[in-house]
Amino acid sequence: MTSPPPPAARSEAEQALPGEAAVNRAARASLSGEKRGLARVWPFLGPAFIAAVAYIDPGNFATNISGGAKFGYLLLWVVLAANLVAMLVQTQSAKLGIATGKNLAELCRERYSRRTSIGLWLQAEIVAMACDLAEIVGAALGLNLLFGIPLFAAGLIAGAGTFALLALQRYGFRRLEAAITVLVGVVVVAFAYELFDASPDGSEVARHMFVPGFGGTESILLATGIVGATVMPHVIYLHSALTQNRITGRNDEERRRILRFEKIDVVIALALAGMVNLAMMIVAAALFHGGSLAGIETIEGAYHGLQSLDRDGAATIFGIALLASGFASSSVGTMAGQVVMQGFIHRQIPIFLRRAFTLAPALLVLAIGLNPTDALVGSQVVLSFGIPFALVPLILIASKREVMGELVNPRWLSASAGVLAALIIALNVFLLYEFAAG
C-alpha cells in the first residue's frame, strides 16, 4: 500500500480540509485585489518557513559552534554569505513550482535522460540520509543533555516524535506548517536570549561579518560545512514542491503576483534563519574562543560550558532549542525525501516506512558511539557536496522559456546564479585537494 502524495503536490481542489479551504479563499481574494496590507500577504506565508527549518537544523548547531569556538568571529562572513545565497536559491526553487506546477525532481526526470535522472536521484537519496542523520542525532543529543537519556534510546524517542509530527498531515498541511513554525519560533527565541546573555564584542562581530578571511585548511572544512548546512540541497527540491500547486496561478499575471508574495515569504523566513545562525556562531565565539572555556568545540561541550557559567538556565534553553530544531527538521527531511523519490522515479513508499528506513543510519551512529558533533559536521560536508547536483539543474531549467514561460530567469540572473554555483563547486574541489595533499 502506498501513501498519498505529499500535501505540497496536491491540487487546491484536493486540499479540501476547512482550514486549507479558507486559506485558498483568502489567497484568491488577495490575488483579485480585495485585500490590502498584511491581510493580502498572510495566505501565501508558509512554504519558506518549512524550508527554513533545514537552515537551522542540528547540523547548523555543530558547524556554527565549532566555527565560533575554534576561530572566533572569523567565519561570520561565511554564515552571512551562505544565507544570502540561500535566499536566492529558495526563491528560484519557489518560482519553478509556481511557473510550471511541477517540482524540480519531476522536471529533471522529464528533461534529462533516464541514466542522468537515476544518478541524480541516487545522490539526492544519499544527501537525504546525511540530512536525516544530522537531525535525529541532534534531537537525540538534546534529549540526552536535558534528561540524561542514553543516546540510542533518545534516538528512538526522537524518531517517534517525528512520526507524531508527520501525522499532523492527516489534518491538513496548515496544521503541520503551524507546528513547525512554532518549533522554529522556539529556536529563534532561545538564541535571541543566548545572544543577549553572551555580551559579544560588537566591533569584532561587525568587522568579521563583512570582511572575508580563513585560518587554514580546518577553517575551509568548517566553511564548507557551513555552506552545506545553510544551502540545503534536499530543500531545493522540496520548496518547488511546496509551491507547485499550493495556490495555482490561472494566468501569467496571477503567477507573477504569487511569486511576489513568495519572495516576501522567503525573505522573512530566511532572514530569521540567518539571524539564528549568526547568533549561534557569535555566542560560541564570545563564550568559548579563549578565556576559561577555551577548547570547547562540540555541542555537548557548549551545553556543559553554559552550565558551568550558571547563566540563569542558558544551558537548558540551549538544549530545548537543539531538541526543537531536531524534531522540526527531521520531519522536513522526510517530506523532501518523498518529493525526491516521487519526482525522479515516479515511485512512493508510505511516509512512515520512509522515516523508519532513513532513521537506521542515525541509530547506527548512536549505537556504535561515534562522537555526535563529529557526525553532525561530517553530514554537513556531505550536504555541501550535494549542492551542485540540485543547484545546477535548477539554474539550467529556470533559464528555459519553454518551461518557465513569462517567469523565465533573465540572462543576468542565470549568469549570477551560475557564478555562485561555480564558487561552491570550487570550494569543494579545493577542500578535496587540500586533504589529498595533506
Tally of helical segments:
19
* Structural class label: mainly alpha
CATH architecture: Up-down Bundle
Instruction: Please name the fourth-level CATH homologous superfamily.
Output: Amino acid/polyamine transporter I
CATH fold topology: Amino acid/polyamine transporter I
DSSP strand tally = 0
Q: How can the largest sheet be summarized?
A: none
Helix content: over 70%
CATH class label: Mainly Alpha
Count of domains: 1
Question: Secondary-structure map with pairings?
Answer:
Layout: H1 18-31, H2 38-41, H3 47-53, H4 58-71, H5 76-100, H6 104-111, H7 114-147, H8 151-166, H9 173-198, H10 202-210, H11 217-230, H12 233-244, H13 252-288, H14 299-309, H15 314-345, H16 351-368, H17 372-398, H18 401-404, H19 411-437
Written description of the protein model:
The longest helix is centred in the middle third of the chain and has 37 residues, at 252-288. Helix content is 77%, strand content 0%. By secondary structure, it is an all-alpha fold. The termini are far apart. The chain has one domain: Amino acid/polyamine transporter I. The protein has 19 helices and no strands.
Supply database-style keywords.
single chain, 438 residues, mainly alpha, Amino acid/polyamine transporter I, disordered N terminus
